[in-house]
Amino acid sequence: MKFRFTAVAVVAALIGVAQPSFAANISISASSTGKNLDLFRKQLDEFEKATGNKVSIVTMPSSSTEQFSQYRLWLAAGNKDVDVYQTDVIWAPQLADQFVDLKDAAKDVVGDFFPSIIASQTVNGRLVAMPLYTDAPALFYRKDLLEKYGKQPPKTWDEMAATAKEIQDKERAAGQKDLWGYVFQGNAYEGLTCNALEWVKSSGGGQIIEADGTISINNEKAAAAIDRAKGWVGTISPGGVLAYQEEESRGVWQTGNAVFMRNWPYAYALGNGGDSAVKGKFDVTTLPVAKEGDTPSSTLGGWNLAVSKYSQNPEVAIELVKFLTSKERQKQRAIELSNLPTLSALYDDKDIAAAAPFMPNWKPIFQNAVPRPSASAKVKYNEVSSKFWTAVHNSLSGNGTSAENLELLEADLTSLKGDNW
After folding, report:
1. How far apart are CA 389 and CA 193, in angstroms?
2. Which of 148, 153, 242, 318 would be 186's cystine partner, CB 3.0–4.6 Å?
3. What 3-state class would DSSP assign to 22?
4. Is the dihedral of CA 302, 303, 306, 310 positive or negative?
């Protein structure tokens, strides 16, 4: 895969102020999801003008699985071309040794962040990344269509499927032939691990690997949850959903061709953009559960910024990380991209409340966020996740039953674990 390096095209100096002799050229890797790159560029221009340093963007694919694979290759090779990495919340235990400890540099601001998120990026006492924004997915629903057919936002997965099928069939009969009931992320990648963990956990089937390291995934409730999802494919979800990642799901949704969608907060602001067919026609709620009384489960997500230990300008790179994770920059992210702040004070910010009224809707979703078992599996998490999403994808595709695939998965994970994680 080829990666694109975005050249810096602005003069990094204030008008009337000479370029400082110590100015550095550094780079930051960033995901291409949504409008992430556009906002990064805007904020980097501000940093350049304020400091005299220049920052280029290394554009990464939207798939977190592809990002992680590339990061691991670069870091293993001691790559000096990337100074700051945008990292997924689950990568800290796996990449910690390759990143600079930010504990001392961030001691003046670390107390402003949610403690749980700081803890997720602390490995063996080292703060290996600063939280940029947090994430938890929701169920997006077409409120206009639910109102049209007298339906309420669903509480259970079966209720969601029934509502989706009814509205899909009636709207198709009325001429909207491209409408589907539900879109999600069914491709064989980290996103499917997130989706399937939500199905399983909200059905009482555990968290794949429990906090004490016990492998729990091979159970009847987990198999039933995956079987339920298999039943959606080709009925309320297109067959192509097995190749969908976040952006493909959003594309179907935003063109008005889905009743329900599971996705992350970034899709909210884009869905209300000027070019969106669903602008003003949707809302969000917690993801469904297997039965009334169960606890909704949304995968804890989020992105952070880490400084490579191979950076030739670590001081400037740390300065950039603190700049991008500051209150002002996170506020801008919340308003423009619907990214959930990692600074608790911003949830009471009046400007955010006015510009992003959806934010309160995410409080109950975030409160029920479920971590992936990266803390339990430690450096083996990526292999655990890969084996899990493969087993789930096989089940959704009809390659073996869920019960059979989970039994094989348990054996694979037991072998991978060995004496300990």
Report:
1. 5
2. 242
3. coil
4. positive
Per the listing, tokens 């906002």 go with: 39
Confidence of residue 357 (pLDDT cuts 50, 70, 90): confident
User: 174 with 116, same domain?
Assistant: no
Q: Are 192 and 248 spatial neighbours (Cβ–Cβ below 8 Å)? A: no
Task: Give residue 356's pLDDT.
Answer: 82
End-to-end CA, the chain: 32
CA distance 304 to 127: 11
Q: How far apart are CA 198 and CA 299, in angstroms?
A: 6
pLDDT of residue 12: 36
- Same domain, yes or no: 223 and 112: no
* Residue keyed to tokens 């390659």: 399
DSSP string, 46-94: HHHHHHS-EEEEEEE-S-HHHHHHHHHHHHHTT--S--EEEEEGGGHHH
Look up the domain containing 385 and give its range.
Answer: 138-299+376-417
Same domain, 246 and 159: yes
Query: What's the token pair of residue 77?
Result: 């090779």
* The three-state (H, E, C) secondary structure of 91-108, written as one string: HHHHHHHHECCCCCCCCC
| 251 and 329 belong to one structural domain | no
